[in-house]
Amino acid sequence: MKLLAMVALLVTICSLEGALVRRQAEEPGQPDMATMVSQYFQAMADYGKDLMEKAKASEIQTQARTYFENTHKHLTPLVKNAGAELMSLFSKWMNPEKAAPDAAK
């Protein structure tokens, strides 16, 4: 008899807890997935606008210009050297008989 009463009490508690969980899940205060996604995209759009406003500052533009000028200054000789060596490689590849005497020396 005590076992039957315990089982009935356990079933009642579980069903009440399940109903409470369902009721909490159905509350209108919680946003649905579409609302959450739209809020996410709105937040990202606002962040992008703020970032663009910061990027308009002359300090960032000056830093970027300086960086590109320094990069150009350092990379130009490397690119010219690589181009010269590439042309030398192509000329040796296209005229192997001229390259052979050089290798024999």
Automatic annotation (TrEMBL):
Keyword Transport annotated: yes
Signal peptide: 1-18
The organism's place on the tree of life at top rank: Eukaryota
Coiled coil: none
Keywords of this entry: HDL, Lipid transport, Secreted, Signal, Transport
Localization terms from the record: Secreted
Translocase listed as a keyword: no
Entries under Pfam families matching the protein: ApoA-II
One annotated GO molecular function: lipase inhibitor activity
Recorded GO CC terms: chylomicron; spherical high-density lipoprotein particle; very-low-density lipoprotein particle
Record family assignment: Belongs to the apolipoprotein A2 family.
Protein name: Apolipoprotein A-II
Organism taxonomic ancestry: Eukaryota, Metazoa, Chordata, Craniata, Vertebrata
Name of the gene: Apoa2
